[in-house]
Amino acid sequence: MSLATPNQAPIFALDPFLNRKDGATELYLIRHGDAFPDNDDDPLEPGTTYENRPLSKLGREQARKLAAHFNATKFDAIYSSPLIRCRQTATPLAELQSLEVQIEPDIREVELHRGETPPVDAKAMREQLDQVVRLAAQAGRWGVIPNAETGEVFRQRVVPAIDQIANLHPGERVAIVAHGGTINMYVANLLGMEREFFFPVVNTSVSITRVKGNSRVLVTLNDTCHLR
C-alpha cells in the first residue's frame, strides 16, 4: 500500500470525483460526541479515566441529532473505535439503520501519557487534555507530548486500518466513528501534509472521503450542519 508521507504529493485519482458507482468507497469520518460533563447534574462516574469516559448529556444529544440527520442516508456498514464514547455515538445511527457496530481497534485515539493515570475529576481532566491538545496543535505533531504514542506509530496503525475498511466495501457508503486525532491523521495523510494535527475536529462533525485502491479524495471537512 502506498501512503502519502511528509513532503510527498498526495495521491489523486484519474477520476477526481471517485464515484461510488465506479467502485469507490465513501467514508463518513465522524468524531465522537462530547464526553466532558459541564455541570454537577451530569458527573463522571467514579473510576472514569481519559480512555473510558462515556458521552456526556450533551454528547448523547449530539449523537441523537447525528442519527436523525442521516436517517434517510443509507449506510452499508458502521465501524467504531473500541472506546465507549465512540460506541455510544455510533449506536443511535446503527439502530436506525438496522446495522451492527463493528469495532476496529486501530482507529482508537492517539495514546497519551502512557503509563500514567489521568485525573478522574471532569474539570481537571478537561484542563489536562486541553493543555495536551494545544501543545500538539501548535506543533502539528504528537511527538511533542511526553510519553505519548509517536506520530509515526499512530499513522502506521490508523491509515492502513481505514484504508482496509474502504477496501472491504467497494462502491458502498460506510460510517467510521473515531477521534479527533484519528481523523486529523487520516485526512492529513490524504492531503500529503507534514502536520499530523491541522484542524479542530468538532464533536460529531462529519468529514467525507472517497477511496478506491490507492486513490483518495476529500469531499467535505468538519461538517456540523446536523447540530444547527
Radius of gyration: 17 Å
- Structurally, the number of domains stands at 1
Instruction: Using the coordinates above, name the CATH class.
Output: Alpha Beta
Q: Label the overall shape.
A: globular
What is the CATH fold-level name? Rossmann fold
Distance between the termini: 39 Å
Structural class determined from secondary elements:
alpha/beta
The fraction of residues assigned to DSSP E strands is 15-25%
| Major sheet | 6 strands, mixed
Number of helices: 5
Overview of this structure, please?
The protein is 33% helix and 16% strand. It has a single domain (20-220), classed as Phosphoglycerate mutase-like (Rossmann fold). It is built from five helices and six strands. The mean pLDDT is 89. With 228 residues, the protein is α/β, with parallel strands linked by helices. It has helices spanning 57-69, 84-97, 122-139, 151-168, 180-191; strands at residues 25-31, 77-80, 101-103, 173-178, 206-212, 215-223. Strands 3-2-4-1-5-6 form a six-stranded mixed beta sheet, with helices on both faces.
Quick overview of this protein structure:
With 228 residues, the chain is of the alpha/beta class. The protein has helices at residues 57-69, 84-97, 122-139, 151-168, 180-191; strands at 25-31, 77-80, 101-103, 173-178, 206-212, 215-223.
